[in-house]
Amino acid sequence: MSYGIFRAAVKHKIFVSYHHHADQAYYDAFSSAFHDTYDVIYDNSLERRIDSDDVNYVMRRIRENHITGTSCTVVLVGAETPKRKYVDWEISATLEKNHALIGVRLPTARLTPDNQYVLVPDRLLDNIKSGFASWLTWEQITADPSQLGQYIAEAKSRKISLINNTRDRRVRNG
User: Tell me: the pLDDT tens digits for 159-172?
Assistant: First the structure.
């Protein structure tokens, strides 16, 4: 009788940052599409759970309780996302941990007045421009759920020397 070795597949952990009030439906769809492949972690409305005005304390809680143990942060960018301080702080904490960063343009994302560019959180934009963060569309990541692994692998392979985390943290919502 022979015994084979069974190795359970390890689910990679992904932190998802998004504006809860406006983009909850997209988070729910993302989580549903990828729950078999990834442990999708989200902030569970950090603002209400942490309940502190001490930015350093909040940042430490974000890093220790939400970003640590993940390998990638996915930022779902809708119409109000660029104005949210906790999204900015979650991106900052991700960059401090040298984790991969992927921005995903939602169909609700707002355009600049000339309709040429999507409005993106400033810190995410800094890292898209530097070449560290990936920038994808909702359609790209949902068209073929098996592709997300490749997008994450590519994001994780980017040089940490490209990280731009020099911007002052947002202190209030816009």
Answer: 999 999 999 989 88
Dig out the tokens for 103 from the structure: 């921005």
Q: Which of 15, 11, 1 is nearest to 96 (CA)?
A: 15
Q: Which fold has domain 12-162?
A: Rossmann fold (3.40.50)
Surface-to-core class of residue 19, CB atoms within 10 Å of its CB (0-12 exposed, 13-18 middle, 19+ buried): buried
Written as one string, the DSSP assignment of 109-172 is: PPBPTTSSSB---HHHHHHHHHT-SEEEEHHHHHH-GGGHHHHHHHHHTS-GGG----SPPP-S
Tell me how many degrees the CA angle 17-25-88 measures, rounded to the nearest 5. Answer: 20
* pLDDT tens, position by position, 35-66: 878 777 654 444 445 566 677 787 787 777 77
d(CA 66, CA 90) in angstroms, rounded, equals: 9
Region 76-88 average pLDDT: 94
3-state secondary structure of 40: strand
Domain boundaries, the chain: 12-162
